Each structure stands twice: as C-alpha cells, then as structure tokens.
C-alpha cells in the first residue's frame, strides 16, 4: 500500500504568527524575518515622509533586539520603541487582515504599560519625545485607542521644552527640529479634520515660501502643512463663521496672501515630483497604482489643501478658485484616494527581496476619510450648467461611498456615520430634482 503523499506545511500569515504569540513577553519571540518585514514597511510607509527615528536608530533597535548588540541606550526605551514600530506597521496592514488590528493593539498596550510602569514619559529627552511622536502616529491611525488631544498636548509641550533646553547644541537641536516638523504636519491633518486650532506655536524657522530644494519629502510636506494651516486658521479665527451676506462684503483687510499661497500650493506638486525622483522613490510596488505611490500621496495632500483654500477664500468673498476648478479638484482627489486604498489592500511585495523597495502602505485614517467625504459632498451639489451631477461624477460619488464604507468597516467609532450622511445627501438631492 502506497504511503499518503506528503503535504507541505502551510505558511503562517502575519496575523497567525501574532495571534498565536500574544501572551509572549519577549520581543525576540517574533520571528526575525517577520519583524524585519514589519519594520521595513514602517520605514517606507511612515519614516519616509514624517521622520521620527531615522534609519540608523531603527537599525540599532532591531540589532539590539535580535542580535544582542550592546548599546548605551536604556533597554526599556529600546523595547518600547520596538513595540511601537510593530504596532504601527500592523495597524497599516489591518485592511489586508482585520485580525492584525488585535496584534497591533496588543503591541501598543504593552508599550504603554511598560512606559507607565517606569514613568519614562515624564522626563523630557529626545528619546522620550520620539516615543511620544510614535504614539501620536499610532493614535492617529487608531483614534479609538487613546485621546489624541491629550497625547498631542503632552507631546507638544515636551517638544517646546526640549527646544529651549538644547539651545546651542546643534546636534540635539537638529533632532528636535525634525521632530517638530513631523509633529506639526501630523497636528495639521488632525486639526483641519476636527476644525480646531493647532497647539504648536510659530515654527523654528518661519518662512512663507515653499522650499525650493527638492531633497527632503518631510520638509516639503511640512511646507504644505504650513500653507494649509494659514487657510485653516483664517477659517476658524475667533470661532466666527461669516454669513452669506457678510462673505460678499468687501473686507478692509488685505488678503493678497491668499492668492500667493494658492500659487505656491499649485507649484508644490512639481517640487514634490522632483523630490521623490531625486530620492529614488519612484518605483511602483503594486499593480494598484500606475504612478509612484508616494507621488499619489503628495497629490492627495495637495488637492485637499486646495479645497481648504477654496473654502477660506470664498468666505472672504474672493473667487481665487472657480466652481468648475473645485469640481475638478474633487474628481482628482477621489481618484487619488481610491488608488491609495487599492494600494493599502494589495499584496505586500518586495519587503525582503534584495534590490526591491518595500511596499508603501499609507495611513488611510479618519482625516483621509474626512477629505473623501468633503469631496463627495461637493460633487453631489449641482453645477451651474446642469441640475444633476454628470454620470462620471455620479460614479465618483459611488466610489466615495464605497471608500467610506470600507473605512467604517475597519474603524472604531471615529468614522461611523460618514457613509450614511453622504448617502442621505445624495438621496435628498435626487428627491429634490425629481
């Protein structure tokens, strides 16, 4: 009698590996190859455009956990940092496997518990600030995990304290400035979606012009965030909202800066395109996006900033972006959002292969969903020349509904209701025109 054919053991998924080891406390219990893959995803998806640690420190952390490399840094700090890196990577991948959200939450809770037991986060150091910024990024991706405003407030205060403490220390000051730019960019995204003022004060080196050197993606996104904040601040200043009649009245205040800033936002994308080309970040890693993913991410950020600028200038009675241009911006934003969504649910490629660039999984958070919702609302409104949206726009509205529904399916309470609200607006408009 012939023996039964041998069956090759099935390869465990990332979710299976983590869910089977949730009770293990040793960081090195996570297989080295899997941890390497996750850290590569973190680096390419987060560190590239909102830097926190830098390549060398990430490498040192990994080597200390798995190779036992001696390091002068406190072992507790290394373990917390490692757990936060894993938690962020797993959160980015939860669209591919919802079970990874459990693994991400476990890693994050372990990091929080360790930091609380040692009172580590109470002392203002560069390492502590880095941990706090990583926590802010995780909460931004998972807003139900903690109070984002408390964490942003604590992180902002420590950032300012360190800037004052370091003074003439150029090395530490440079690290603090990088962390400041990252925190400023992150806070801008959150405050704009919430309609709240930012907490961080005037930048380290204030400038109203977009950086012309195309060599630093994080600096360019920071510059765009500064432009976005100017319009956001004008919209919410003094907590007032102008009526339609007031918005048509000429203002005695000079708002010429709006025209200049909008031109800067339009020209920003070409600088961004040159930047990612110079950095060798133009590789397309999946079939979901025809253009480089980082370029699409920059387009999405530019388009949502232009929509904010449109709202702010309209409030002042200045038509700097026409209605038809606004519709065009919304169409492009929805297409970019859809491409980024497909990138986030596509297969992970190239993370461990020599010569290949790791997959980018951009954080499609509730701030992303807010922008998609805004674009959908604008597209529902009838244009000047017709009563109902064009068929192409109706298709884009359905894409918006699909994106919001997909987000709500994998989110906590943060995005609930956006799909229902947009669908209700669409149904109401149809009932009116009929």
TrEMBL record:
GO terms assigned for molecular function: DNA-binding transcription factor activity, RNA polymerase II-specific; sequence-specific DNA binding; zinc ion binding
Domain of life: Eukaryota
Main location group: nucleus
Protein's GO biological process: DNA-templated transcription; positive regulation of transcription by RNA polymerase II
Location(s), subcellular: Nucleus
Transmembrane parts of this sequence: none
Residue ranges of domain Xylanolytic transcriptional activator regulatory in the record: 148-218
Any single Gene Ontology cellular-component annotation: nucleus
Keyword Heme: no
Claim: S-adenosyl-L-methionine is one of the keywords in the record: no
This protein's UniProt keywords: DNA-binding, Metal-binding, Nucleus, Transcription, Transcription regulation, Zinc
Record InterPro entries: XnlR_reg_dom, Yeast_MetPath_Reg
PANTHER family in UniProt: ZN(II)2CYS6 TRANSCRIPTION FACTOR (EUROFUNG) (PTHR47782:SF12), ZN(II)2CYS6 TRANSCRIPTION FACTOR (EUROFUNG)-RELATED (PTHR47782)
Name of the protein this chain belongs to: Xylanolytic transcriptional activator regulatory domain-containing protein
């Amino acid at each position: 009698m012939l023996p039964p054919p041998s069956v090759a053991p099935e390869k465990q998924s990332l979710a299976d590996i983590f869910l089977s080891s949730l009770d293990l406390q040793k960081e090195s219990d996570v297989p080295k190859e899997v941890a390497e893959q996750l850290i590569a995803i973190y680096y390419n998806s987060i560190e590239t455009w909102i830097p926190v640690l830098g390549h060398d420190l990430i490498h040192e952390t990994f080597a200390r956990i798995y190779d036992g490399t001696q390091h002068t840094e406190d072992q507790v700090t290394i373990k917390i940092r490692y757990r936060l890196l894993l938690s962020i990577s797993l959160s980015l991948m939860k669209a591919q496997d919802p079970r990874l959200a459990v693994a991400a939450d476990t890693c994050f809770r372990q990091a929080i518990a360790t930091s609380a037991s040692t009172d580590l986060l109470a002392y203002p150091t560069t390492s502590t600030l880095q941990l706090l910024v990583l926590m802010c990024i995780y909460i931004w991706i998972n807003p139900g995990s903690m109070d984002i405003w408390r964490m942003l407030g604590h992180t902002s205060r420590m950032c300012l304290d360190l800037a004052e403490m370091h003074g003439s220390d150029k090395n530490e000051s440079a690290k603090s400035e990088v962390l400041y730019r990252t925190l400023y960019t992150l806070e801008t995204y959150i405050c704009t979606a919430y309609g709240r003022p930012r907490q961080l004060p005037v930048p380290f080196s204030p400038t109203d012009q977009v950086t012309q050197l195309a060599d630093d993606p994080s600096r360019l996104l920071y510059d765009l965030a500064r432009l976005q904040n100017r319009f956001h601040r004008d919209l919410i200043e003094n907590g007032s909202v102008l009526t339609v009649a007031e918005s048509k009245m000429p203002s005695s205040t000079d708002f010429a800066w709006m025209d200049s800033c909008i031109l800067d936002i339009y020209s920003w994308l070409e600088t961004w395109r040159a930047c990612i080309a110079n950095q060798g970040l133009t590789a397309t890693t999946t079939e979901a996006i025809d253009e480089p993913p980082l370029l699409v991410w920059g387009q999405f950020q530019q388009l949502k900033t232009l929509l904010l600028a449109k709202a702010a200038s309209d409030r002042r009675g200045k038509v700097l972006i026409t209605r038809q241009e606004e519709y065009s911006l919304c169409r492009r934003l929805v297409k970019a959002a859809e491409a980024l969504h497909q990138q986030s649910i596509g297969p992970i490629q190239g993370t461990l292969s020599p010569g290949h660039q790791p997959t980018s999984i951009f954080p499609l958070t509730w701030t992303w969903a807010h922008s998609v919702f805004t674009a959908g609302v604008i597209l529902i409104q009838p244009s000047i020349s017709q009563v109902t949206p064009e068929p192409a726009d109706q298709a884009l509205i359905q894409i918006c509904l699909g994106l919001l529904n997909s987000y709500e399916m994998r989110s906590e309470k943060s995005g609930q209701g956006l799909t229902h609200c947009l669908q209700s607006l669409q149904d109401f408009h149809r009932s009116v025109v009929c």
